[in-house]
Design a protein that fits this description.
heterotrimer; A alpha+beta; B alpha+beta; C alpha+beta; A: alpha+beta; Aldehyde Oxidoreductase, domain 4; Aldehyde Oxidoreductase, domain 3; 3 domains; seven-stranded mixed sheet; 19 helices; disordered N terminus; B: alpha+beta; Uridine Diphospho-n-acetylenolpyruvylglucosamine Reductase, domain 2; Uridine Diphospho-n-acetylenolpyruvylglucosamine Reductase, domain 3; Enolase-like, domain 1; 11 helices; 14 strands; 31% helix
Chain lengths: 795, 293, 161
């Protein structure tokens, strides 16, 4: 690193730095006053609405489609089948080359010949209003010949089970096996071996604004503008262009406000592809907004896993080995373009991750089934890996009569043991399991709670404490998708410029869905430049107007996009100081920028306001000394190179009470300590964690997509699919340990998924802790009253 | 998710509403608060040809005490039950139950008449009015008739109401002195439909029930006025007596299973409710934990 | 009639005449006809609370009400409550506490919270959670919202004391 003398002082420590400070996010008033611009709000001239007629069957041959009556309905612009749309958009296959053996079948925007899940689109109805399109969709007669549906992942690979895609030869999408150390030897040398099967309910994201897209093909410009609530605009641009036969320059993706994403909006869905294609076909703007029932039937699902786990332990608490056998059913296709093998792959990568033992054996199998597609949703794989690992650790502790905290103390990787590598090959730069656990115990007053628990048991009040340590993958490098051939950028870019009034315009390739991308970018740029945040305007979510980059997903915005912002701002600062030195007949090293002015570096005396500097540069360059060529715009890109992922860590605790007569659980309190490295905005980090925890609590207690044996989703509405609401959620206390990554100057790692990663595990362990007097162990979520009462033998 | 097209008529009077219903038969639906009807229509589970909006009919509004009778107009909203001084005084059970119905925004629109006519077995008010010995007043073009609450509910979403009739009011004896009430339900989340619930009214003399009405809901296809109550009346309630009543209750129940609770779980929860109700009403915590420890 | 019907109503204090199809929900009327897109649609079956507005001073789900039912009513949306300044302090508390992330639930959440504060000046946290229990937020986990409402209640009580 070179630069002026001021660079020797970390940009994080500059006077008036916004980094590490809680400042309100810019532009919140827009959302607070109902003046946001969500895609579902958007209207364009000549815009028509598309409604998809969706298959009522999990698996069926389409014998015929009669749309004549529908075409005659008022307001109908067109009724389009899969065959017709095929002329506009090509099919895709959701595989990545580094997921060895992963296979899937070609998927189309609208089904052709056969439907493979309840909810797959069979025809598109385009009309002047959504209501008119729904009216017409009811008039389409589809003759289906029902086929046997594959619904149970446990029998999906049986020879007697029909093969969903004959061309693939079987229903196995992906399998991975891993063996590190010597598990058999370790288990045979253990004092106890405990095993259990962990069941996870299939659940989904339930973004409050459903998926929404307006595609606007301008035939005269030969250009497609896609307005879409997406986390990855450049990925959408690439894929839309690829399958519509366009150049990327012919596709612009615009993403303004997005009503929730959580991974749901990082994929490319068939109905979105169909909407792009329909706009091209019909030469007018087409709007698709999923309704809530469609959201449940077509937004990706996640977490439907059955994982057998085994742990060996010695009497002194030493964990000798972990072993898992994970099975998951992903629906009929691997999702595009990130694939549906990633969750199982992450489970293999992450189980046992916080612990010392190097003996680890894992198998994961990913099978096809006739249900909605599964793919990456917030904290991909982490909740499963964490629940299995932490569940096993608690079972081992109980088996040898050791306190759950003590067994963790004896087995968590020491805080001074880094860098190190996990048995699955994950490289840890620096983690802080012990410091985090210590802090957690102090925050929650562990001993006090144990005493309270014991006292209340005497009065038949059953409370439990559950602990869950976790690791989290953040800041993914090209190792995540790029190496597998996906055009999903792992780098991000930021362009920063000083405008003519001395304000700063900042264009970034990361996106905003409420995490605070805009805020963290402005905080970093403002801090580095010495400019107040109210003079920094951040532009994001537009492929025409931002540098190329990955977007916001996988807890990467702050760590990757933030570093790009920092580096771009540093260059701009140096450029400004060069100009200022020329104007002020000083040297760049003798100057700094603070409080929107160039100041004397030594005593801070203001020398020239940035607005005045900008005025001279833009309007009176003739007055500058000869040879000075001001460059008041700078762009930098960043991608992690040294570590494939910046791992973070943390630990959660749950304190809850179970009414053992009704099976109802009351969450009393939840604690999290996490280490995401440098904290840019403490409030935003805390709120990411709280929101993530509550998504994990939803999984723990409420959320489950319930399919019947015929592959029908039976609770595809908000009254029957239970999401966590305010009345049942606890207050969540959050603490931090800070171990910055040295791979970037900023030192920030991700924080978006930490909450979700460990919350369900903590709750499950707390439930088993509460039920200890009853000799009951439950390894299934959601932990419904029905599950609790059944386990207790009450029903 | 848009409702199919329908015609809409804003009724100008009860007579006018009855005329419209007579003219259109079962192709018409009465729109009161709409809090159950509109979701069903938006989901296109229901597509009536005509909605008869009775929401503006002043003659169906209001709560009054006439003689010893509390008369509650059909359009009385759940929020009105919460706010009404007459209800608080004469039928506090309704007030307590109304607090469990959905959420504030729903309670501001949903009505007593609508809830009763909809007859969702998981809803609170049908059980309450059965417990309160209420009479349901319905009007037809031919005139008015009164149906005992216990006779009104016929099954899931089924009532004694005929297509051309309109539920206009509910009448019940104003609270007798010495009545005690109990209301509890188990729902997965605040405001969700109950998976088991109990509304009860009791008269207690010297630590014994001289009268006990137990109205269970969400544990059958309609509210159940449990005969098990008779096992608890005019006796000194011991754990054995209570266990006997619980056994009787289980025999009476025929619960449905759904995604929240199996029939067995509903039977179990009904017994838990019974024990907790009796323990609370008699102020006998010792009775609360039955066989299950 | 299936045919469009006239309605006259007050929208954020402004008299308005419109002709609407009977099946048009009040939420869609506000969003599509009047372009008041601050009223959000999240489920269209009365569960999520994103479409909460005020009708004659009381909160309702605008997806469960027809535009024709609003004839003669006074409708208030987040745009109106913002412009009048009625919830300015609540909005400021939400901003300060980061009680919103994606912002999609926020208009309904603010209107519901204001409803509580009008009825119950200093509610405790449990009461706040209960009153908001029909408004779904996927982003925040609710605690920040509860904090912001609690802080506003205390500040208002302090001012009126």
């Amino acid at each position: 690193m070179t630069g002026s003398a001021m660079d020797a002082l970390s940009v994080l420590d500059r006077p008036n730095s916004y980094i590490g400070k809680t400042v309100p996010r810019p532009n919140l008033d827009r959302l607070l006053q109902g003046r946001g611009q969500y895609v579902s709000d958007l209207e364009l001239p000549r815009m028509a609405h598309v409604v998809f007629l969706r298959s009522p069957h999990a698996h069926a041959r389409i014998v015929s489609i009669d749309a004549d009556a529908a075409r005659r309905m008022p307001g109908v612009v067109a009724v389009v089948s899969g065959r017709e749309l095929e002329t506009v958009i090509t099919p895709w296959v959701g595989v990545l080359s580094h997921m060895k053996g992963l296979k899937s079948a070609p998927q189309r925007a609208i089904a052709v010949g056969r439907v493979c899940w309840q909810g797959e689109a069979v025809a598109a109805v385009v009309a002047t209003s959504r209501a008119a399109a729904e009216d017409a969709a009811e008039q389409i007669a589809v003759d289906y010949e029902q086929l046997d549906a594959v619904t149970d992942m446990r029998t999906a690979l049986d020879p007697s089970t029909p093969i969903i895609h004959a061309s693939l030869g079987d229903n196995l999408a992906f399998e991975r096996a891993l063996h590190a150390g010597d598990v058999d030897l370790a288990l045979s040398g253990s004092d106890a071996v405990v095993e259990a099967e962990f069941l996870f309910g299939r659940h989904t994201g339930v973004t409050l604004e459903p998926r929404a897209v307006v595609a606007d093909w301008n035939a005269a410009e030969a250009r497609l503008t896609i307005y879409q609530g997406t986390q990855a605009p450049h990925m959408v641009q690439n894929i839309a262009a690829l399958h519509l036969g366009l150049k990327e320059t012919q596709v612009r993706v615009v993403c303004k406000d997005v009503g929730g994403s959580f991974g749901i909006k990082v994929h490319i869905y068939a109905d979105e592809m169909a909407t792009y294609a329909l706009s091209k076909l019909l030469r007018r703007p087409i709007k698709f907004v999923a309704d809530r029932v469609e959201s449940f039937n077509t937004d990706i699902h996640a977490r439907d896993h059955r994982c057998k786990g085994r742990i060996g332990v010695k009497q002194d608490g030493t964990i000798t080995a972990f072993e898992i056998d994970d099975l998951t059913g992903i629906g009929p296709y691997s999702m595009y373009p990130r694939t549906s093998a990633v969750e199982a792959n992450q489970v293999v990568n992450l189980v046992g991750g916080p612990y010392l033992t190097q003996n680890y054996r894992a198998r994961a199998r990913v099978v096809f089934q006739n249900k909605n597609v599964m793919c990456q949703y917030r904290a991909v794989g982490h909740p499963i890996a964490c629940s299995v690992t932490e569940g096993l650790v608690d079972l081992a502790a109980a088996k040898i009569g050791m306190d759950p905290v003590e067994i963790r103390r004896r087995n968590l990787i020491a805080d001074d043991a880094y860098p190190c590598t996990s048995p699955s090959g994950m490289k840890f730069e620096r983690l802080s399991h012990h410091a985090s656990l210590t802090k957690l115990l102090q925050m929650m007053d562990y001993e006090g709670l144990r005493a309270e628990q014991a006292a209340l048991r005497g009065t038949k009040v059953h409370r439990g404490i559950g602990i869950a340590s976790f690791i989290e993958i953040t800041n993914p490098s090209a190792a995540f998708y790029g190496v597998g051939g996906a055009k999903i950028s792992s780098q991000d870019g930021v362009a920063v410029r000083l405008d003519a009034q001395g304000s700063v315009i900042c264009q970034t390739s990361i996106t905003e869905q409420g995490q605070g991308s805009e805020s963290l970018t402005a905080q970093i740029v403002g801090s580095v430049l010495g400019v107040s945040m109210d003079r920094v305007r951040v532009i994001l979510g537009d492929t025409d107007n931002t540098p190329y980059g990955g977007g916001t997903w996988a807890s990467r915005g702050a760590g990757i996009g933030g570093e790009a912002a920092l580096q771009a701002a540093k260059v701009l600062r140096a450029n400004i100081l060069d100009v200022a030195a020329a104007i002020l007949q000083s040297t760049p090293a003798g100057l700094d920028i603070a409080g929107n002015s160039v100041v004397d570096a030594i005593d801070g005396t203001p020398r020239i306001e940035l607005s005045e500097l900008a005025r001279i540069v833009y309007f009176r360059p003739d007055t500058l000394p000869p040879g000075i060529r001001p460059e008041l715009m700078a762009t930098r890109h960043f991608v992690p190179r040294q570590y494939p992922f910046a791992f973070t860590n943390g630990v959660q605790a749950s304190w809850l009470e179970i009414d053992t007569e009704t099976g109802f659980i009351k969450l009393l309190k939840h604690w999290v300590v996490e280490d995401c490295g440098t904290i840019i905005n403490p409030q935003l980090v805390d709120e990411q964690i709280r929101g993530g925890v509550v998504q994990g609590l939803g999984a723990a207690l409420f959320e489950k997509c319930i399919y019947d044996e015929r592959g029908q989703l039976t609770n595809a509405n908000m009254a029957d699919y239970l999401v966590p609401m305010s009345g049942e959620m606890p207050d969540i206390e959050i603490g931090h340990v800070v171990s910055p990554t040295l791979e970037s100057e900023l030192g920030a790692k991700g924080a978006g998924e930490a909450g979700t990663a460990g919350a369900a595990a903590a709750v499950a362990n707390a439930v088993n802790d509460a039920l200890r007097p009853f000799g009951v162990i439950i390894t299934e979520i959601p932990l419904t009253p029905q599950v609790i009462l059944t386990a207790l033998g009450r029903i | 998710m848009k409702a199919a097209a329908f015609a809409y008529a804003r009724a100008t009077s009860v007579v006018n509403a009855l005329e419209l219903l007579a003219a259109h038969g079962d192709k018409a639906k009465v729109l009161s608060g709409g809090q159950s009807l509109m979701p069903a229509m938006n989901l296109r589970l229901l597509s009536p040809d005509l909605l008869v909006d009775i929401g503006g009919l002043a003659e169906l509004q209001g709560v009054a005490v006439k003689g010893g009778t509390l008369v509650i107009g059909a359009l009385t909203r759940h929020v009105d039950l919460l706010r009404s001084a007459e209800v608080a005084l004469h039928a506090p059970l309704l007030r307590e139950a109304a607090a469990h119905i959905a959420h504030p925004a729903i309670r501001n629109r949903g009505t007593l008449g609508g809830s009763l006519a909809h007859a969702d077995p998981a809803s609170e008010l049908p059980a309450c009015i059965a417990v309160l010995d209420a009479t349901i007043v319905v009007r037809a073009p031919s005139g008015e008739r009164r149906i005992a609450a216990t006779e009104f509910f016929k099954g899931i979403y089924e009532t004694a109401l005929l297509p051309q009739e309109l539920l206009v009011a509910v009448e019940m004896p104003a609270r007798g002195k010495g009545s005690a009430f109990f209301f509890q339900e188990y729902a997965r989340r605040h405001g969700d439909y109950a998976i088991a619930g109990l509304a009860a009214r009791a008269t207690i003399d010297d630590g014994r029930f001289s009268d006990l009405r137990l109205g269970f809901f969400a544990v059958g296809d309609r509210p159940l006025l449990a005969a098990a109550a008779s096992k608890l009346t005019n006796v000194s309630v011991t754990p054995t007596v209570l266990a006997d009543a619980a056994a009787t209750l289980v025999d009476e129940l025929d619960p449905q299973g759904d995604q929240q609770a199996s029939p067995a779980m509903r039977r179990h929860l009904a017994q838990v409710l019974l024990r907790r109700c009796v323990a609370a009403l008699l102020a006998r915590p010792d009775l609360e934990t039955g066989a299950a420890q | 009639m299936i045919a469009p019907m006239p309605v006259s109503l007050l929208i954020n204090g402004e008299p308005m005449d419109a002709v609407v199809l009977p099946r048009l929900s009040l939420a869609d009327f506000l969003r599509e006809n009047l372009k008041l897109t601050g009223t959000h649609v999240g489920c269209e079956h009365g569960v999520c609370g994103a479409c909460t507005i005020r009708v004659d001073g009381e909160i309702v789900r605008s997806c469960l009400m027809l535009a024709v039912q609003a004839h003669g009513a006074s409708i208030e949306t987040i745009e109106g409550l913002s412009d009048s300044g009625e919830v300015a302090d609540l909005q400021a508390a939400f901003r300060q506490r980061n009680a919103l992330q994606c912002g999609y639930c926020t208009p309904g959440m603010l209107i519901t919270a204001q409803d509580l504060l009008k009825q119950s000046p200093v509610p405790d946290r449990a009461a706040i959670r209960q009153h908001l229990s029909g408004n779904y937020c996927r982003c925040t986990g609710y605690q920040a919202i509860v904090d912001a409402v609690e802080a506003t209640a205390k500040a208002r009580a302090g001012r009126s004391a």
